[in-house]
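Hey, quick one: can you model this chain's 3D structure?
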Amino acid sequence: MDNRYFFEKCSGNTIELDKTETSHLVKVRRAKVGDNIVGFCGDGFDYTLTIDEIGKTTKCSIDSKVKNKAVDVTPVTVFLSTLKNDALNESVDNITQLNVKNIVLFDTKFSVANIDEDKIEKLRTRSIQACKQCERADFVNISSMKYKQVIECLKDYDLALFAYENTTNPFMSDLREYKGKKIALIVGCEGGFSAEEAEEFNKIAKTISLGKTILRAPVACTALTSAVISGLGEWSRV
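Sure thing. Here's the predicted structure for all 238 residues.
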């Protein structure tokens, strides 16, 4: 959405858009003082703003705020084995737009990419842009875990779905009984999971197939997330 802007600084009834947002505001939108725009800061609200001053940054007054309709959804967490940069960026973009609450990156036997706080911070910045485009007003929580931590963490979920190419178990198409509950989705990296890892996940999650073809990791996590949201009955703008 071209008329939607992210802000961090807020003082009383005034917010400030940074240089990057101001550049888009001026060069793309051709905005001027007195125009109205929409802002968000990750708190789940959409802010109606009036532009008061345009310089290197932009100062706006807050006219009103309303709760974003995309906030109240079933809390889905995607556990994604670490991918190479392009595939990881694509995955984060897609599942941010699909309104997941958490993305957890973790290492597996066949992972070839490392994850550190600098990379996670870049992904967070990238996900903000995806939030802007898809009109959500809360941020995706992006973090990392060790493999063994993931195994322990999954025990706390009401439903965990493990996408595995070597199973014939069909996908659960009707998930409405899990609406509002904690759901975990587990997707592997480019090299997939080892037999030992698959066996361990099979003990604590429902192993399901994503079809007769082998999907690339970004497609697999996007397809699985989409199918789950559909199964929960949340394909709606209401």
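One thing worth noting: Residues 117-134 form the longest helix (18 residues).
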